[in-house]
Design brief:
Length: 396
């Protein structure tokens, strides 16, 4: 397959009025964090991703000299383009500038978010293989109130359905370009590109955002940004392991890795007995110190009788999100003489990826026989072993 062309629009044409501080003349995107201008950091984050083929920065008409003073040089950097009076208008200016090159994909990024990681950018690109749009989000952790007059609480929202949107937001170029062109003709301001995509009827998938991917909006966000750089708000990596065994009984199929595989036996157990998903689920629980599958889904509870094990895996993924964590990678090994696992590995990776909302490149499924030794060798059952690597906010 032809490599995809992936362009990036970095919108830097705002005035940064809310972040302005007395005695500091530079707008926020030209101020420094850790000695480097915010905009330089944002652009560098995308230059660090080899799949990115071109980057266009949208600047304010008064900031030409400031942009030139950054001294940025790279073959993939296009000349800056002047933006409009709103973020929406600035993005459209970027899309128009890219139209002659017509890239396959476009990522739209706020200059004011200097800490998007290469991994986050990769996840957004990865999600675009299955979705028309990809949006990094974080679950809302504060209780959210609605007020009709700004002084009295009117209602409390159900935060379980609320997510904070970040950038980069990724799209197929042609689709977001025509959506933006149409949006420019209606009397409505859209605050992000995902909202324009939703309005145009495009499907936008959520990928896990990052706590460190802050938008510098207010003066104290600079201190916050310095703390991110010095590691005070850094993430740490946790490892969890999972192990599961189920015995065979007469039957005609097994569930493994979320896939139904015809076989001469079935696996005995309370749920669908998917050993591979059980081991993975326990590995995730283990990495975040959240007990094990039996604690959350007791076998004594009849509601889990025959349950699809994707339900358990999804729950573990939700606990990771609640802990503001993110799955780095998962690895499971299935030990059995049969059925043959290899033909089903791609489908298993897809089910696991979709259940957890992560890229399938973060998932490995492997299989081995035990050389006819032991209970797996005698075809009495199947074993699965898994490990999970998960990043969570550092605790000291
Ligand atoms: N006319 C505009 C307005 C905003 N942006 C960009 O959109 C991003 C998100 O906007 P925001 O953080 O609100 O920036 P400002 O508009 O600069 O901030 P303020 O509203 O405080 O002036 C920023 O990188 C900003 O430079 C833009 O390119 N063109
Ligand atoms: C696009 C955005 O970063 C998503 O959170 C945000 O909406 C941009 O900031 P603004 O203040 O709404 O312009």
């Amino acid at each position: 397959m032809r490599p995809k062309t992936i362009a990036v629009i970095i919108v830097a044409a705002g005035k940064g009025e809310r972040a302005a501080a007395t005695g500091i003349p530079d707008p926020k995107q030209y101020r420094t964090i850790g000695g480097k201008p915010v905009l330089t950091r944002t652009i560098a984050a995308f230059l660090a991703v080899p799949e990115v083929t071109q980057i266009v920065t949208i600047i304010h008409p008064d900031h030409g000299d400031r942009y030139a003073a950054l001294g940025l040089k790279d073959d993939r950097l296009l000349p800056p383009v002047v933006g409009g009076a709103s973020r929406q208008a600035s993005v459209l200016a970027g899309l128009k500038a890219l139209a002659p090159a017509r890239p396959d994909l476009v990522l739209i990024q706020d200059a004011a978010r200097p800490f998007a990681s290469a991994r986050l950018i990769g996840d957004v690109i990865g999600a675009l293989s299955q979705s028309e749009g990809a949006l990094p989000t974080l679950p809302v952790t504060d209780t959210i109130k609605r007020s009709l007059d700004g002084t009295q609480v009117s209602t409390t929202e159900d935060r379980n359905q609320l997510f904070a949107a970040q950038t980069p937001q990724g799209f197929r170029f042609g689709q977001i370009f025509s959506a933006h062109m149409r949006a420019a003709t209606v009397p409505r301001q859209f605050t992000d590109d995902a909202e324009i995509a939703e309005w145009a009827g495009l499907r936008v998938a959520m990928v896990a955002g990052e706590r460190s991917n802050i938008k510098i909006t207010h003066p104290d966000d600079f201190a916050h940004a310095e703390r991110i750089l010095t590691g005070d708000l850094a993430m740490e990596t946790r490892i969890g392991t999972g192990f599961d065994v189920h015995s065979f009984e007469p039957g005609d199929h097994v569930w493994l890795g979320g896939v139904r595989i015809p076989y001469k036996f079935k696996l005995n157990g309370h749920s669908d007995s998917d050993v591979a998903l059980h081991a993975l689920t326990d590995a995730i629980y283990g990495a975040i110190g959240a007990g094990d599958i039996g604690v959350h889904f007791p076998p004594s509870d009849m509601q889990w009788k025959g349950a699809a094990s994707t339900l358990f895996l999804k729950h573990a993924g939700e606990l990771v999100a609640k802990a503001s964590g993110r799955i780095v990678n998962l690895d499971v090994t299935i030990v059995c003489e049969g059925p043959k696992i290899a033909p089903h590995v791609p489908a298993m990776r897809t089910v696991i990826a979709e259940t957890l909302g992560i890229a399938s490149s973060r998932i490995a499924v492997k299989a081995t026989t035990s050389e006819k030794l032991g209970f797996t060798g005698r075809e009495e059952g199947i074993v699965a072993m898994a490990s999970a690597s998960i990043e969570v906010p550092r605790v000291d």
